[in-house]
Amino acid sequence: MRAVRFGILGAGVTLSISLLAGAPAMADDTAPTPTPTSGAVTDGAVPGVVSDADDVKGYKDEAGNVIAPADDSGSMTTAQISCTPETGVDNPHVSKTKVDVSGHGWWQKGTCTAATAHVTSCLYEWYTDGYFYQKDCNSRKVKPGTGKRANSRIACHTNVMTTWTNRVDVDVDGRTDPSDYHSKKANVACRTF
Q: What does pLDDT average to over the chain?
């Protein structure tokens, strides 16, 4: 909470008035320091743009736990897989409203005959500790085709350029399909803090 002090001439009285209930305390001429919106971000790590010199360590969920690598399809044998769908994923991008970043995922039948699949799209923001942190996930039961999509979305705090990844997983209903993720990465003028 920020307090403003007024002195009353000659009376030696100071009055404090709260201007922003619940806001962090700050010096009179400074802006509040935003805090990361995901769990367990390494102290001092901030969102940024991945360069060729950066060591990308992987992905973390909302609690800060390291999650599966980009392709973990080796965990199943070919005999266990009953069909292979085609996974559609688009680049993370600023949405039409210009206030958030979004990503979409969809599927095509590939070798599958099922009528529906659960498609999950997750957005990850890159931090300077080398990890992409999960910011939003959305799973949706959809029919095959590009018109039927799962959409992940999160509000931007600023329009500072940041690297985002959209990871999509397709789980075909009633079938055993590869447990892999498909992803696309892009620099987007959107940062969550």
A: 79
